Amino acid sequence: MNSQASYPIGSHGQPWGAVEVADWRSRQVKRRSYAADVLHALEPLRERFDITEYGALDYTGEHYPLMAVRSRDWREELPLMLVTGGVHGYETSGVHGALQFLRDHAQDYAGRANLLVVPCVSPWAYERIHRWNPDAIDPNRNFREGSPSGEASALVHLLAPLHGRVLMHIDLHETTDSDESEFRPALAARDGKDFEPGEIPDGFYLVDDTENPQPAFQQAVIEAVAKVTHIAPADAHGEIIGSPQVAPGVIEYALKALGLCAGITGARYTTTTEVYPDSPRATPQQCNDAQVVAVRAAIDYALTHR
Q1: Ranges for the Peptidase M14 domain (predicted)?
Q2: What is the pTM of this model?
Q3: Which of 10, 109, 117, 250 minimizes the number of CB atoms within 10 Å of its CB?
Q4: Which tens digits make up the pLDDT trace of 38-62?
Q5: What's the CA gap between 86 and 88, in Å, rounded?
């Protein structure tokens, strides 16, 4: 049975309109607090970093300040490293991994690199453990000028002055069982298409850029993460999540053409992490640790191969 016949919103073969989006939005329940989990966690870091509000979102009667964390010893001659998390709000370790990196390791790069960390790009979705914003828009297909996503538009504007100056950008994500049980069926229903079942990979993997592949960089990150959690194997077709595996634990997407977050800056080194938190072989803390190790390995490689 395809998702259009089974998904509780919409009619088979018909893309959603405003009524369906409103119906979908009314079903989204706040399940955790951005203020408690993110804003509160940032407060102790103000002693060591410059923390600024780069925008704000007002959704469903709630106000969400968007926060960026910068190295306090910012120097123009230093290489710039960008870390983003929480583009998809339900991908928890992206947010908490970014915060853990800031708390425990970011100071290690003082005087060696300029760090810019945006730990939670999509706070409304973070609170509702969802992929989309309240307009049923996926920010991670809309990182471009004139974006319909407020989350994507705010980040694009933050980073626009830095285009061509970012050496490394790592975007922290997860692939979850709910991708297959909820989010992809919802996407098919929203777009009036049939749902094509897929396979969720068990383990960590990376997404490189088809237009600017950096295989040695990706391999360095994979090797570091393999010490913390297991790397996803390819499926019987030699693919991970429908894309050919180009190296162990690595696939490629056309980042900029697809409007993906990692394609914003034109950085030399880009990657998107994908942790699998639903694996019986991984704990939530292990997923956070994998994100932190990935960030550190990415920065270390970029510093060594400038």
Answers
A1: 30-306
A2: 0.97
A3: 109
A4: 999 999 999 999 999 999 999 989 9
A5: 5
